[in-house]
TrEMBL record:
Pfam families: Neur_chan_LBD. InterPro entries: GABAAa_rcpt, Neur_chan_lig-bd, Neur_chan_lig-bd_sf, Neur_channel, Neurotransmitter_ion_chnl_CS. It is found in: Postsynaptic cell membrane. This is GABRA6 isoform 7. It comes from Pongo abelii. Its main location: membrane. It is a multi-pass membrane protein.
């Protein structure tokens, strides 16, 4: 390369591009639904609510946050999880989480910059042929942010958008779901 370690940025045609990331933390109620034909039932009860001990015996998706640095499932005073089975085998699984994730910063228009902080999630082990993630309420209504949560210390949350993509790896194709939180200073 013509740029050596002795080069001064901006001279000799060499430049340095530095990527800046911030970490952001959010509390979420993460809801997942799926259908398990094996759990269909009949009777007078329309919905079965299960306790955490029973939930541990039922298959659940292995969802993880791809750009998460640390995630905490809340357990005060009991695990903050809700697990319900409908008669047709549809399951609702909700948990309260605190997620710390990376956000790439674009400081081009600093101090009037805006950012799209992603939260990416998907299956850890199951390829697309075994598990598919979709936005249940479509792209406009699948992520809800309360009005009181839309202002941050230096930024305002001006909206959010969602997307999904399929990535290929040597173990298969995987669906990745992404929520972009749009911030403006």
């Amino acid at each position: 390369s013509r740029c050596s370690g002795d080069s001064v940025p901006g001279t000799d045609g060499c430049s340095i591009r530095k990527r800046v990331f911030i970490e952001y933390t959010m509390d979420v109620f993460f809801r997942q639904t799926w259908t398990d034909e094996r759990l269909k039932f009949g009777g007078p009860t329309e919905i079965l609510s299960l306790n955490n001990l029973m939930v541990s015996k039922i298959w659940t998706p292995d969802t993880f946050f791809r750009n998460g640095k640390k995630s905490i499932a809340h357990n005060m005073t009991t695990p903050n999880k809700l697990f319900r089975i409908m008669q047709n085998g549809t399951i609702l699984y909700t948990m309260r989480l605190t997620i710390n994730a990376d956000c790439p910063m674009r400081l081009v228009n600093f101090p009037m910059d805006g950012h799209a902080c992603p939260l990416k999630f998907g299956s850890y082990a199951y390829p697309k042929s075994e598990i598919i993630y979709t936005w249940k309420k479509g792209p406009l209504y699948s992520v809800e942010v309360p009005e009181e949560s839309s202002s941050l210390l230096q930024y305002d949350l001006i909206g959010q958008t969602v997307s999904s993509e399929t990535i290929k790896s040597n173990t298969g194709e995987y669906v990745i779901m992404t929520v972009y939180f749009h911030l403006q200073r």
